[in-house]
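User: Could you walk me through two proteins back to back? I'd like the raw sequence and the structure tokens for each, with a short line separating them so I can tell where one ends and the next begins.

Assistant: Of course. Protein one, sequence then structure:
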Amino acid sequence: EMGPKELVLSKKYEKKQSLKCCTFGASSLQERHLATGDFSGKMETWDLEKGDMPVYSVKAHSEIVNCIDGVGGLGIGVGAPEIATGSRDGSVKVWDVRQEND
């Protein structure tokens, strides 16, 4: 959030596990979701209005999630729901976050 002369922190969330990467491309601007990847290989999607529990969580990789990206409707309203993750385990995976968690 921008104040008159400075950047103002609007929200702060903390997790027990360190995060490696994240993207706001996880959803449309109206949904305000953030997708994160961590050092244990987990990918999670968070509702920025609630923040306490992920709306989607999966053990995405056997090693660190090095990169994560999504479309989320950038500039066109609503885009593809898929999120792509890449890992040190040598794989790139595409996730459909509309699916139920296991």
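----
Protein two, same layout:
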Amino acid sequence: MVFFVCSGCNESCKKSSLSSHIRRCPSCTSVTCVDCNVTFYGDDWRSHTSCVTEAERYERTVYRADGKSRRRESRFTATTG
């Protein structure tokens, strides 16, 4: 489940309740994904459907990505530098 943190009030919200939070929080200018620490402005958060898995985040020393995850990761690092 994807959680975001509001930049205005630092409240954590599930993706399903984020649009209602943004409507009622006047100081919300951006939201940050808790898992991958990427900041989204405007409605960009709607397209954020996946980032790191729980296994990648919490089991780094023993986690082994499958081929699909490695390809996705290499494309991400190639675009971000």
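Helices lie at 15-24, 54-58, 67-80.

Let me know if you want the two compared in more detail.
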